[in-house]
Write a structure and sequence with these properties.
With 172 residues, the protein is mainly alpha-helical. The protein has a two-stranded parallel ribbon. It contains eight helices and two strands. The chain starts with 7 loop residues before the first helix and ends with a helix. The mean pLDDT is 92. 16% of the residues are buried.
């Protein structure tokens, strides 16, 4: 629970620079990485985001969404999700955690390749995946900053919906 490097600021700056100029790939990035990096660590996310969980869901909506399931589904990589030591107490356990994380990163790269290859076999699927990934940033912006709305308009819509529901219940 101490810093392993003395130049953490330089590392974070390089990470932010790389994320700004490249496509940032994550699995469930919108649910964690793309939210935590700017909020907690003040590292801005880039404009080009790719979430393998969203892309995999566009291809196979009925399949489990975890990275392990996606890797099992579209790669020949061995299962490694039982190898992680998440609170290392010694150097060997720390090395085990780094190896586990490395397998996750490599597996995610292979999953993305599998998704890309599969999506080319179905008309419109690449565009659907692109649309899902293009939605990440706007949704995160509204999550972090809120969304403007006119309360009078919301009240009017709610009132109209209540009126319609009452009439439908009466008819039923």
């Amino acid at each position: 629970y101490s810093l392993a490097y003395t130049n953490v600021g330089s590392i974070m700056r390089s990470l932010a620079y790389a994320m700004d100029r490249n496509t940032t790939v994550a699995h469930n990035g919108a649910g964690f990485d793309y939210l935590v990096l700017p909020y907690r660590y003040h590292i801005p996310i880039g404009r080009r985001l790719y979430d393998t969980m969203l892309a995999h869901h566009r291809c196979f909506p009925e399949v489990e969404k975890s990275l392990g399931h996606g890797m099992s589904h579209l790669t020949d990589l061995p299962y490694h999700k039982d190898e992680g030591v998440f609170e290392p107490q010694n150097e060997r356990q720390e090395q085990s955690l780094w190896m586990y994380n490395g397998k996750d990163v490599f597996g995610m790269r292979e999953l993305k390749r599998g998704i890309t290859a599969f999506s080319k076999t179905i008309a419109g699927l690449p565009e659907s995946i692109e649309q899902a990934n293009a939605s990440i940033r706007p949704y995160l912006t509204t999550t972090l900053q809120g969304i403007r709305y006119r309360s009078d308009k919301v009240e009017r819509i709610l009132s109209e919906n209540d009126r319609r529901m009452t009439q439908l219940l009466r008819l039923i």
